[in-house]
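step 4 of 6: structure.
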Amino acid sequence: MVSHIKNALIAAVMAGVIIAPVFGLQIVRSGMQTHLEPEWDMVLMGMAIVFVFQAFVRPAFVKVMGRGERKFSMPVLNDTSRRAMIFLLIAIALIWPFFTGRAEVDIATLVLIYVMLGLGLNIVVGFAGLLDLGFVGFYAVGAYTYALLYHWAGWGFWEALPLAGAMAGLFGYLLGFPVLRLRGDYLAIVTLGFGEIIRLLLINLYEFTGGPDGISGIPKPTVFGMPMVRRAPEGETTFHEFMGWQFDNMDVIIYLYLMALVLALVTLFVSNRVIRMPIGRAWEALREDEIACRSLGLNPTNIKLSAFTMGATFAGFGGAFFAARQGLVNPESFTFLESALILAIVVLGGMGSQVGVILAAIVLTVLPEVAREFAEYRMMIFGLVMVVMMMWRPQGLLPMKRPHVELKQ
Amino acid sequence: MSEFIPQLVQQFFNGLSLGAIYALIAIGYTMVYGIIGMINFAHGEIYMIGAYVGLVTLSAIGVGTGLPVPLIILIMLIVAMLVTAVYGYAVEKVAYAPLRGGPRLVPLISAIGMSIFLQNWVAVGQGARDMAVPALVTGALQVNIGDYTITAPYSRIMIILVTVVLMFMLHMYIKHSRLGRASRACSQDLRMANLLGIDTNKIISFTFVVGAMLAAVGGVLIALAIGKLNPFIGFLAGIKAFTAAVLGGIGSIPGAMLGGVLLGLAETFAAAYISSQYKDIVAFSLLVLILLFRPTGLLGKPEVEKV
């Protein structure tokens, strides 16, 4: 007990040192001079919390944990119930937007974009075990492909969509080719470098990409060639005229939502199938042991490259859709933080687990929207959650269930 | 033509002072990587916090209170080093130590989380906007060569001098002290060192503390030289310092110093002779190229993967 108290005292003093210069002494600027405004109660409170935690809570926690089984895990769903749950969720997702407000559907669309991105990155990080910190670069490539094709050539969304995916995939292939022989954390840093290079190029190629302002006025997708706008451009009928409806902005939002849902479902379906194919098995094998794979005659570079390219392609689709929904793209949307957010979705969901990724995408997108008043603490908590998750459940909320056959007794 | 040489000297000086900062940060990366083989992603944030602590100290003392400037700077450096030492220690104990021995990706992700946390920790505490740092060291050394004047601000000369002194001290400490010898043993073989009775946990903490202290010095000095700071300066500086560490050969302390200086020079020359907008791209491209063609860096030893 004495040693606990002593340790806790040391920890409390350290907490004081950590909190004091950031929260305890606020720098206030008055004219040319800066002076400090002390807020000692905050420091003392922090110290007290740390002391109590270290002295009483943690030893008690360890005692409790030590007595029972330390590991407890959430129920792992079996195949049937998982499938039933997915169908139920799809049905709800299809019907739901018609009964709620505009803001909710808008957020749901955003969630679906992140689901798509999360599932794409899940292929790279979760299945193939390649830590990609520059995923947002491919997202940017997709978004700018559509934006630029519209801006310079007047292409519509549906013509540009396949090309956006292909372009991002091509970038993934070209960038992946040289770097994929690097080991884990080197790969992470190089991909981070690539992501930043893409963003910096978008900023600096001013004539081509519009620089920091980006490109605006990107049209929304059409419905079978009919634009969803109030007034049709010359010689075209709008969707609501064709259907004989009044124009309603809500229709556009629901349409975008349904499209995002379709894209997300396609991503889910493809990644779900591909992991059962030989190439998917090879990804997982490579993730577990590269040397063993090589000695079994698998070509690590090709296998990694296929994962990288496929993940990038989905990011490209997501990007094109993002550009269409937003109506404008600029490099601000493609910072490292975005990569970190997508990575957090994958990690929080449980690397390799698709249901987990979807769940995490919902949590990480909806929570900040709900907790608007905590906006400034949002990113702080976000970082902390990443750390705590790695300690508490490195396998994620819903860890992946490996497909396997059990012998009947 | 007559301007070419003096201009080159000017850029060389600029590059050297920038490179000195990178070298100071890079040592933290390289020492940690050398011992536990992980990238301490939050290291750039420690540098930023060091700069903030320096500013807080300066504001506490007050500018123009009659204290001699070198003494003020010394106090700033010492306070910043002490506080960031605690930060470095705590970050390691909280975010990395519990994860040791797990899969490689786990501590890296935890480190990214820590980095985001620390950035916003300061952004919430001290505000996210740019903050001006009072100019403590003013004036510049001016040398005329022909009709061209080379300007060397004292604040930047100070960066180079302080860095050289600290590098020398670190070198002597690692070479000759007990703790330094133990940390060298750990970087050769952590398990073996442990078996021979070295408290490896202590050495790992020591590594984080030393790295954090040096980064803090870099932060304080650059804040004084540039005159402003915000909570997000750590990210870019951290990535670049990591590039420097990789360039010199990660795990090698002289390599980090060399890599820092080379990166600083490359960036400055790119800004001067290509375009200042492309200097970050040059740094990142350099990182990619080195990792592709010489992943072990200039002074690093090749790593053999064993089954």
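step 5 of 6: annotate
 - The first strand of chain B starts at residue 131 and ends at 132.
 - Chain B has a mean pLDDT of 87.
step 6 of 6: archive
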